[in-house]
Structures are given as C-alpha cells and as structure tokens.
Amino acid sequence: MSTLPVYQWRLAPDGYATRRQLRARNLRPGGQDVAAQLERPRRRRGPLVAYLYRVDLAKPVRPMTAARWAALAKANAARRVCPECRRDAGYVIPTSLGTCAPCALPEGSRDGIAA
Residue 35's closest CA among 18, 60, 21, 23? Predict the structure, then answer.
C-alpha cells in the first residue's frame, strides 16, 4: 500500500487539480484514484485536506440529456411542495422548517414577531 504525496496549501505542482478545479475546466475525475492531497494547517484543529486528481487522466463532463433535465426539474419541483398543506410554496422549502412558512408559523404564533 503506497501513501499519497502531501503538498502544502497553494504549493501543489502543475498537473493536479481538485474536483472543483476539474469541474471549472469541464472535466471530471473519470474513475481515477486520488493522486495526491493538499493540507492547509489550522490553529486549533487538524489540517484541512483537499484531494487532488491528475488533469491528464481526467475525462470530459458528460452532457446533460433531455431525460436528466426532466428528472432534475421534477426533483426541484418536489422540493417546493409543502408536505403538510400540499401547495406549491413558490420557493424551495428549507429542511430546517420541513414545511412552508405559513404551516411552520401559524397565525397565532406570529403575533409576538416584530415586523
């Protein structure tokens, strides 16, 4: 079992990129293993770690198909429907509330809230 090369923050050699950097170039790791890692020191906790992939082995991002666009639209529409009143809230319902604002804050409990 080999260990990964570890580089300090901002000192990685050319030819390596994080997932986000690959995505900005319209690339994806494409099944390759992590090639190296970056470590950013922190004062009171362990270092932040970012995994690096080789750019030369990366593959282009797969294009979105019509079926994928439809599935994504359906999933986003489902996040807008309140599970309690079954109405379209007009926005994505926050997971912290779990319901739309009118259901989460009934009329009686809004009296103490300053506008």
Answer: 18
Report which of 30, 24, 20 is spatially closest to residue 57, judged by C-alpha positions: 30
Tokens of 86: 């079954």
**Which residue matches tokens 């995994």?**
51
Short-list 59, 56, 63, 52, CA closest to 21: 52
- Sign of the torsion formed by the C-alpha atoms of 54, 55, 56 and 59: positive
Alpha-helical segments (H) within 16-89: 19-24, 66-78
Q: Are 110 and 104 spatial neighbours (Cβ–Cβ below 8 Å)?
A: no
Write the pLDDT tens digit of every residue in 72-102: 999 999 999 999 999 999 999 998 888 998 8
Q: Where are the beta strands (DSSP E) in the chain?
A: 6-8, 16-17, 27-28, 36-40, 48-54, 59-60
